[in-house]
Amino acid sequence: MNSNVWVIPEWSDDLVRGGFSFRQGGFSEGPYETLNLGAKVGDDIEKVRMNREVVATAGFGPQTEWVMAQQVHGHNVGVVGRRERGAGVTLEMPPIQDCDALVTNEPETTLVILTADCVPVLFYDPVHRAIGAAHSGWRGTTQHIVQQVILHMQFLYMTEARDLRVAIGPSIHRCCYEVDEPVADIVRNEFGENYLVSRFQKPGKYLLGLQDCIKRDLIQMGVSPANIEDAGLCTSCHTDLLFSHRKEQGKTGRECGIIRLNHFE
C-alpha cells in the first residue's frame, strides 16, 4: 500500500481488494487537488490518468482491467466481465451506459464508482466469489439501488444475502445534507418519516442521512448488520481529505469506491 489515505474494508484480503480513495497523494492542482479521479470535471486529463495510476498501483489492477459506469443517478445494474474491461477508462471504450452499479464474478476485473458526496457502496460475496459496486445518491437510494445489486447477485451468482460483506464509503452525511420538500416526500414514501430531520426555523427543509436508508435496505434484504461497515466520514465536513460537490459548489474532483477480484487457486 502506498502512503495515500484510504478506507479499506476489513474483509479485503488476497482474494478481493476493496477501498475508498481520498483526495490526497495525486498530481492535480487547484480545486482538483490532488488525487482527482474524475475525467469530466474540468481537470487536466493527463493528470487524471496519472492519478488513476496511483490507485491502480495500490493493489487494484491495471487501468485496462477497470470497468466504470456512466452514473446517471438511476438504479440500473450493469453485469460486466472480461469483455467490458477498460470501459470508461480507455478512449476506445465508453463507460457502461445508463447504470449506477456494476457486478461481476470475473477475476482480475476491477469495478470503479466515482463520487463527491453520493454514497459509494461495495459488495463482496466470499462464498460464491462475486463483487458489486454502487453509486447511491438520493435518487438511487430512493430507487433502492443496493437492493437491485443484491437481487442481481442472487440471480446471477447464487449469492445469499446473509453471506454478503458490504462497505459504505465516505459521503455526505445528515449533518450537512439538506433537502427540500419534493425530495423529502419521496423519502417519506420509500422509507418513512423517521429518516428525515426538520430544520429549525427553516420550513420545508430537512436533513437526510442516506447511509441510514441504505442500511435499512440492506438489512431488509437479509444482510447481517454485523457485516455492514460504514466509514462514517462526511465529505462536506472534511474537504481537506475528501471532495464534496455540494460544499465546494460543484468545482471539485472525484474520489472512488473500488473493488477487484483476484485469481485464486
From TrEMBL:
InterPro entries: Cu_polyphenol_OxRdtase, Cu_polyphenol_OxRdtase_sf, Cytotoxic_necrot_fac-like_cat. Its cofactor is Zn(2+). It holds the Pfam family Cu-oxidase_4. GO terms for molecular function: copper ion binding; hydrolase activity; S-methyl-5-thioadenosine phosphorylase activity. It comes from the Bacteria. The keyword Hydrolase applies. Keywords: Hydrolase, Metal-binding, Transferase, Zinc. It catalyses: inosine + phosphate = alpha-D-ribose 1-phosphate + hypoxanthine; adenosine + H2O + H(+) = inosine + NH4(+); S-methyl-5'-thioadenosine + phosphate = 5-(methylsulfanyl)-alpha-D-ribose 1-phosphate + adenine; adenosine + phosphate = alpha-D-ribose 1-phosphate + adenine. Gene3D superfamilies: CNF1/YfiH-like putative cysteine hydrolases. The keyword Metal-binding applies. Belongs to the purine nucleoside phosphorylase YfiH/LACC1 family. Purine nucleoside enzyme that catalyzes the phosphorolysis of adenosine and inosine nucleosides, yielding D-ribose 1-phosphate and the respective free bases, adenine and hypoxanthine. Also catalyzes the phosphorolysis of S-methyl-5'-thioadenosine into adenine and S-methyl-5-thio-alpha-D-ribose 1-phosphate. Also has adenosine deaminase activity. This is Purine nucleoside phosphorylase. It comes from Alicyclobacillus ferrooxydans.
